[in-house]
Every structure is written in structure tokens, then in C-alpha cells.
Amino acid sequence: MKLRPVVGVALAAALVRWAVSLHDYSGLATPPRFGDYEAQRHWMEITVSLPPSEWYRNSSRNDLGYWGLDYPPLSGYQSWLCGKFVQHFEPKAVELRASRGYESPFSKFLLRQTVLAADALVALPAALAAAVVFGGGSNGRRLQLLVALLFSPATVLIDHGHFQYNCIGLGLAMGAAAAQAVGHDVLCSVLFSLSLNHKQMGLYYAPAFFAYLFGRCLQQRTPGGKVCAVARLGVVVALTFGLVWAPWLRAPGAAWLDVLRRVFPTQRGLYEDYVANWWCTSSRLIKWTRLLSQARLLQLCSTATLAAAAPAMAMQLLRPSPRGFLLCLAASATAFFLFSYQVHEKSILLPLLPLSMLFGAEDPQLLCWINVIATFSMAPLLQKDRLGLAAIGTVAACVAAVQIAQIATAKTDAPRQHRGGTPLLSGRRIQQRLIQLSFLGCVVLLVAFVTLPPPQHLPFLYDALIVTWSFLHIAALFAYVYILMLQEFHNAGKAKQP
After folding, report:
1. Which of 204-218, 250-264, 291-305 is predicted least confidently?
2. d(CA 28, CA 108)
3. Which of 366, 375, 320, 340 is nearest to 480 (CA)?
4. Is residue 440 classed exposed, middle or buried when 0-12, 13-18 and 19+ CB atoms within 10 A define those classes?
5. Least enclosed by CB within 10 Å: which of 86, 125, 290, 391?
């Protein structure tokens, strides 16, 4: 890709992020627990004030009942680094026990800068690598894919509005995907292991990475070659995890168990708030939490998730391919979002990433629709955070950037046939009609959500309607991904025939 347009896209994306960062954040001025902004600030407070062996352990100095650290160690290291930065300029913002609920304007500015820096240092290079690898040989298509990855409104809103650091975990996973596509399996294993160690939600991608990498190992010509390939990747993963977890593995008293208990808090419930997955949507008719115990629900969710992801895994085990891997990533992440246990509305970011890598250069119209639905599915959360205006602005920026990139690509590249499309959704009128109908439903629900008070006996009516409408779209998209996977699997089989 040429340097000038890449710089222009990066600067425009940074401007959108900066504009969103001027808005409110999760839990602003809402004691006693505030919100995700306070959680991130509190983790900085804990990590700069206590040794790693105490980060995940309840004590008089670390009350786990108040936003206890519940992300893996790499996230703790990130909190420590960001905390040191904040501490240098405003020590009161991370003072142990005395900084609870600290919300000065300057501390907000400092914390916002840490997310912008993380985005620039991790997500931007990963997006560049993914654009080069998955954009094909065309500079225009690569630029188009870069735009799709950097202008994702849902990701920008959650990280730079709501306030999180998903750009790190998603960036590492994106870099891992790019590495495997060019045959760097060791680098892929390291980057994905780091992604898992930043946020446990990286498990949404684990079936796809496992299936593809194991499938690659099975392609070795000899049994010894197969065993050596598997062993090499196993050693790489073990060493990466060992280095990240070293402070807790060395600490007395099985401190690593404290980390595991915090990272996988199964007692927190089936889902959080209103999320556009199967369990939340169907709970209006089936009271899952009344019918089944927590242990049974956990088993049911695990079984349903693995069953939904298993066909995609099987196809990659048998016939691994770079495009098939992206489809498997999308299928696996969507299966986890729809059926797994303890899903957040923000988890939509996980399937959104591989979908953007798939359709960013192939089908811009479909990509814009996916981004709108992903953002729409979080409407109750965004409304609570007072990010409605920011949501409209980021969606508009995404659509405009994608359209501009598409026009620029059309001028510089020869027309190409849509890869991997199906008669169902491949630039036909039916796609446009369905998207128009979808948008109309979103607009009607949003207008009612904002202007019409719900009935007193149904105070969360609009929240339920929004997640139900979103669930129908995400489920349909899940089915479409599987249609594309079957096509790719069939094409990969034909390519192997003499």
C-alpha cells in the first residue's frame, strides 16, 4: 500500500477516536460502584501499589468485591503500565484506597490517552498486516480492508467511549490471523496466546485457531513430521503462557489458582444486561435460570457452543485454508456469542473482527450493514453511557469512509468478481431489499426507544425488542457464514483434485 493514503486513513481514524473520547464514559458520576471506567482506573491503582502475587487475592488492601481484577495477567501488566503513566502526572488518581471514584478532568484525559496509545501501538500495526495479507494483491482492496478494520464503530465506541482496552486483545488476535495466513505458525501461536492472556474472551477464537493450526500440522507428509509440528507449537504456547504467568507460578500457595478463579467467575450468571444472544432473547418465553441450576446451565451452554462451532472446526481440520480460517473464526466467535455462558453485550466485538476481515474488501455494503447491526445491538448500553450522539457519528463516519474507499478502489482497480459469494447474498437486489428492511426496523425501534416511554408494567420493553431484532440478524449472519464455509470447503476439495 502507498504511504500517503495509509497515513490519511490512520489519521482520520485517530480523529474519530479522539472525538469519541470527548464524550461520557461508563459510570460517570454514578456512585457507589461507578462503571467500567472506574474498574480500569481501580486496576491501575491496585497494580501500581501491590505486588503481582496480590493482584487477584482478596485482602485488606485489595477488596475483590469492588471491581476486583478479573482479566488474565497480560491485562494486569497493561494496567500497571498505564497506571505508572497516570501516576507520574496525577498520583492521586491511582492512590491506594484513597482514589475510589476519582474522576478529575485531567485524569480522564490521561486515561483516554492510554487507550489511544494502545490502539496506535497494537491495533494499527495489526490492521495494516491484516490488510496486506487478506486484501489480496490490489492496493485499493487492501486500503478498503484497512478502512473497514479501523472505522468499526462498535469497537471505537466501547474502547474510546464506554472505556476499555479491547484494541489490545483484538489487535493481537488480528496479528495472529495475519501471521498464520502467510505460514508463520509459531508467530501466530505466540500472538494468539498473548491475546488469550489479555482477555479470556479470546477463547471465542480458540476453536478456529486450534482447528486451523492442527489441520496444518496434519498436512505434514510423514507421521514424524506431524508429531514434530504439533510438539513445536505446544512448546511455543507453553513457554508463552509460562512467561506471562511466571509471577504466580513462582509464588507460594498456588497463587495461580487465584488468577483462574477470578478469570472464570462462573457464579456471575447466564448473561449480563440485555445481550442479543439466544439465552437472553429466549428467556422471555423460557425462564432458563428457574428451570435449571447454574451447573446445568453451564453444561448446556458449553454443549450448545461446541455443537455450533464443531462443523466449522471439522472443515478446517480436514481442509485448512486462509479464507476458510477467517470463516471459521467468524463462525466460532458467533457461536460463542449466541450460545456460551456469561456473555456481555460488548462481546459482539469478537465476531465483528473476523467478519470485517472477510467482507471489508469483498462486500462493503454487507460490511456497513454488519457494523450497523453490531452497534444497534448495544443501544441500551450506549444509551446508559450517554453515547447516542457518538454512536450516530461513528456509524456515519464508518459508512462514509467505506464508501470513499470503495470509490477510490473502483478508480484504481479493475472490476473483480465477488469472491465466495452465494446466490443468496452477492450484490443482488434481494440483498439490498433485506438490508433496507433491516435498517427500517432499526430506525423504528430506535425512534420508539428514544421518544416513547414504555408501558409501566413493561419498563424494559424496548431493550428486549432491540436485542431480539439484533439476535435475528446475528443468527441469520451465522447461517450465512456457514453457507460460505461449505462453499470454501467444496472449493478447497476441488483444488486438491488432480
Report:
1. 250-264
2. 10
3. 366
4. exposed
5. 290
